[in-house]
Amino acid sequence: LIAREETFGPVAAVLPFDSEEEVIARANANEMGLAGYIYTDDLRRAMRLSERIECGMLGINTASFTGPPIPFGGWKQSGLGREGSRHGLAEYMELKYVCFGDLAA
């Protein structure tokens, strides 16, 4: 259940794996996608996994990565849009495109 549900609480799950493909498949095989965590000493592995894991926030070698300047939000059933940061402000803005032709006429 801990790998398929959005668990809120002080819990740490350690799931063994045999390949990166297995990790990515397990991480993405659920309806949630708020946050993910990667612990590794391999920068290339961290970059590969961070590109493929489907979540809104990803901590690499840290569990503490939120705060006012951070765009907080998830993917999938964990929510759309962001709170906080300049990205969160965009949720309250209306975009308008204005195009001018030649004014010298």
Question: What do these coordinates show?
Answer:
The protein has 105 residues and is an alpha+beta fold. It has one domain (1-105): Aldehyde Dehydrogenase, Chain A, domain 2 (3-Layer(aba) Sandwich), CATH 3.40.309.10. It is built from three helices and two strands, in the order αβαβα. The protein has a two-stranded parallel ribbon. Strand 1 (35-38), helix 2 (43-52) and strand 2 form a beta-alpha-beta unit. The chain is elongated, with a radius of gyration of 19 Å. The model has no long low-confidence stretch (mean pLDDT 86).
Summarize the structure.
With 105 residues, this protein is of the alpha+beta class. The chain is built from three helices and two strands; from the N terminus they run H-E-H-E-H.
Write the topology of this structure.
Elements: H1 20-28, E1 35-38, H2 43-52, E2 57-60, H3 85-89
Parallel strand pairs: 1-2
Largest sheet: 2 strands, parallel
What is the CATH topology classification name?
Aldehyde Dehydrogenase, Chain A, domain 2
What gap, in angstroms, lies between the N and C termini? 68 Å
CATH superfamily: Aldehyde Dehydrogenase, Chain A, domain 2
CATH level-1 class = Alpha Beta
Along the chain, the helix and strand elements come as HEHEH
Strand content: 5-15%
Q: Architecture in CATH?
A: 3-Layer(aba) Sandwich
Average pLDDT reading = 86
> What is the CA-based Rg, rounded?
19 Å
- The percentage helix is 10-25%
Going across the major beta sheet, what is the strand order? 1-2
Counting DSSP E segments of at least 2 residues, the number of strands comes to 2
Which residues form runs of ≥5 with pLDDT under 50?
A: none
Number of contiguous helices: 3
Which structural class matches the secondary elements? alpha+beta
Query: Into how many domains do the coordinates divide?
Result: 1
The general outline is elongated
